[in-house]
Write a structure and sequence with these properties.
Layout lengths: L2 H40 L3 E10 L2 E5 L5 E5 L11 E5 L5 E5 L2 H9 L1 E3 L12 H16 L1 H7 L6 E6 L5 H11 L3 E6 L10 H15 L3 E6 L2 H4 L8 H19 L6 E7 L7 H4 L6 E5 L4 H12 L4 E2 L3 H7 L5 H17 L5 E2 H23 L1
Length: 373
């Protein structure tokens, strides 16, 4: 056998040994992964509970269904009332403390974002903007002014009026202008199923706001939480009232110069509980009405600034949009652009705006018929 043949046979054997070894390692790795995954299925699940109080070396916990138990806990755990813990299912012995559980619960219901809306992006609301800047922006930017004069700025502001008139945009703009964390909450999501859960969520949200200060807490549809209380006697109504009382307690607990400001919005000021409107809570209430002729013209200019438009008569369009909100005007500009896109044009014509106005009007009428017909 030639030397070349022997070398080739040696190389082939080495490759075969390497391949077999590599396959063996891959099989061992796959076997180890599958065994670890199988072990996860065998683990006993733990209950997530809340610590109500401590009695010597035992703790009273509340399990998810609302029942309370006196249980043991690991001696190395430093617990206090209000902590969220993990407990064994059978003995309910506490084995672990969840340090990040509170922020997880609140972040699940809260929308965090860094707004990029500027004051110049909002049209037709000069009076409302000035009031919000005076109540929210000035205390966050210049707290020294209030300390020097010995006065306490309002803790929050209530925005009320027609839907689509810019309440949310103003809240985002003030958070952006002060470089604050913007925490947006829908009030209906604060109403929880189990007793005390809504109140706990409110407490966590305001704790989170203080941690991320300066921050602006914006609560939309506040009437879902703060509607005038009635003596209905149902457990659901009582739970709403408990959550509402916790909200009032958090407002009362704020120091006037804290870097946390509360903005609430509603379309139904007529049903808001008077306890929320008394001095010391929402001292300032700002009304948002439908935009005037000049305000509508300003809003149109903001939304048209990037639109290529051919032969526009703005005054005529403005007069055709009486009783339109700011959101309606934005929708008109968007629909006009769509009409141009469908016809393959690079410019928007007056006729596109006329058709867009008719379409938005028709949609409003259909929505009204669906609600009240």
């Amino acid at each position: 056998m030639s030397i070349l043949s022997k070398l080739r046979r040696g190389e082939s054997s080495a490759v075969k040994v390497y391949t077999e070894s590599n396959q063996e390692n891959m099989l061992k790795s796959s076997l180890g992964y599958l065994k670890a995954e199988l072990d996860k299925f065998k683990e006993t699940p733990l209950l997530v509970c809340d610590v109500k109080s401590l009695l010597g070396n035992k703790a009273i916990i509340r399990v998810p269904n609302g029942n309370q138990f006196l249980v043991n806990y690991m001696s190395n755990l430093k617990l206090k009332p209000g902590d969220t813990v993990l407990a064994e299912q059978k003995s309910l012995t506490i084995v672990e403390k969840l340090t990040d559980a509170g922020s997880f619960d609140s972040q699940f219901f809260v929308s965090f974002e860094k707004p990029n809306i500027k004051w110049e992006d909002i049209g037709g609301l000069d009076e409302q903007i000035n009031e919000v800047r005076e109540v929210i922006e000035l205390p966050l930017k210049r707290p020294d002014l209030f300390k020097r004069l010995g006065i306490e700025p309002p803790k929050g502001v209530l925005l009320y009026g027609y839907p689509g008139t810019g309440k949310t945009m103003i809240a985002k703009a003030v958070a952006s202008s002060t470089n604050s964390t913007f925490i947006e909450i829908v009030a209906s999501e604060l109403i929880q199923k189990f007793i005390g859960e809504g109140a706990k969520l409110i407490k966590e949200i305001f704790r989170l706001a203080k941690e991320k200060a300066p921050s602006v807490v914006f609560i939309d549809e506040i009437d879902a939480l703060a509607a005038e209380r009635v003596d209905m006697g149902t457990s659901g109504e009582r739970e709403v009232q408990r959550t509402f009382m916790q909200f009032l307690a958090e407002l009362d607990g704020f120091k006037s110069l804290d870097n946390v400001k509360v903005i609430a919005a509603t379309n139904r000021i007529d049903i808001i509980d008077q306890a929320l409107l008394r001095p010391g809570r929402f001292d300032r209430m700002i009304e948002f009405s439908l935009p005037s002729v000049d305000a509508r013209a300003h809003i149109f200019k903001i939304h048209m600034k990037s639109m290529p438009i051919d032969n526009l008569d703005l005054n005529y369009i403005v007069n055709k949009t009486e009783d339109f909100s700011g959101a309606d005007i934005k929708s008109v500009c968007t629909e006009a652009g769509y009409f141009a896109i469908r016809e393959g044009r690079d410019k928007v014509h007056m006729d596109d705006f006329f058709r867009a106005i008719d379409k938005v009007n028709q949609q409003s009428e259909e929505n009204s018929s669906a609600m009240y017909g």
